[in-house]
Amino acid sequence: MSEICPIDFDLIVTIVNRGFAEEVMTAAKAAGAEGGTIINGRGTGVRETAKLFQIPIEPEKEIVLTLIDRLKTAQVLAAVTRAAELNKPGKGV
Fold this sequence. Notes:
Blueprint lengths: L8 E9 L3 H10 L6 E6 L7 E3 L2 E3 L2 E10 L3 H12 L9
Helix pairs in contact: 1-2
């Protein structure tokens, strides 16, 4: 019979506008994270569609994945929220 291992890590997923992922990573590292992964993406929401010369464009996003020791999750999440201003509309999730 296999032994069930407790989960010792959390995954913090942060979605921000392009250009802000480094701020997220800097804050996460300062709060105890060892690193993370940045993935490029783009929004698909109706409100996010903008036009440039009558051509619809979708704003590009950066997704930051941070695998963190569960004991550090709260402090890293608070630091990321502060640094990226995630409590303000349109800044990220």
